[in-house]
Amino acid sequence: MRHKDFIEVHDYTAEEVMRIFELARDMKAKPKKFKDALTGQTLAMIFEKSSTRTRVSFEVGMFQLGGHALFLSARDIQLGRGEPITDTAKVLSRYVDGIMARTFAHKTVTDLAEHASVPVINGLTDLSHPCQSMTDYFTAWEKFGDLKGRKLAYVGDGNNMAHSLMLAGPKLGMDVAIATPAAYAPAAEMVSTAKADAKAAGTKMVITTSVDEAVAGADIVETDVWASMGQEAEAEKRHRDFAGWIVDKRVMSLAKREAIFMHCLPAHRGEEVAAEVIDSPRSVIYDEAENRLHIQKAIMYTLMKDRDR
Length: 309
Fold this sequence. Notes:
Layout: H1 14-29, E1 42-47, H2 53-64, E2 68-73, H3 85-95, E3 98-102, H4 106-115, E4 120-124, H5 130-144, E5 151-155, H6 160-168, E6 175-179, H7 188-201, E7 205-208, H8 211-215, E8 220-223, H9 235-241, H10 249-253, E9 260-263, H11 275-278, H12 285-304
Parallel strand pairs: 1-2, 1-3, 3-4, 5-6, 5-8, 6-7, 8-9
Helix pairs in contact: 1-12, 2-12, 3-4, 5-6, 5-12, 6-7
């Protein structure tokens, strides 16, 4: 597997995704085995959006692999003052061994990848959140084993989380159902790509405005906040538009008896999810949070280990 970057799961084959899962599993079980894997290497972490899980998991992950991580907020680097991404990418490539970017515009990450000579990892953009989708499916793989033929149902905003879940599901042989209010449907280009991937994989991809249709028979039920970072001005309107879209016991009762609940966090109990669900034994949110560390370590190892330097 020779990829320079990790921008979206769509870019990887099903076999490559599974190799990352298997590597993450090994790293989780035997962390000391990999403690010197990236000794002497440095990861630059660009944050236009603040974060708890992304920063801590990448920073700790590099430390556990023997490397070092640099936190670079928009206030800390010239990119935040208008320096061209081309220059930022080329300069950082002279200093560091990899770049992780958590940004607003997806083009920021793709431009970094185009102009950097070192690996670039998409830590989140307004369009996609591939590290989280890999984490969620890895967590389900831990719980269920083989994921082929299983179903994930996502309920809520057709946002970056929905997009990456749609693109990753077919790689694992899974059916995916996305339920959103009509005005908050996933981006058309992402739907088109996901449906093409599902057709090629022989899986189902359903985009609907019906929560009941999406969740029926699901093995995994997932949701996300109604207003993501950068959408604070829309929060009041979104709360009105999403009224009744809470994942509660009734919604979970439509899924399989052994179905699990996922949320990438942070969560707002009583809004997108009821406390009776997120704090129940069916919830695996803290396993998800931990697994960001292991999946991202596997991604960094895959891209940065044995790279020509």
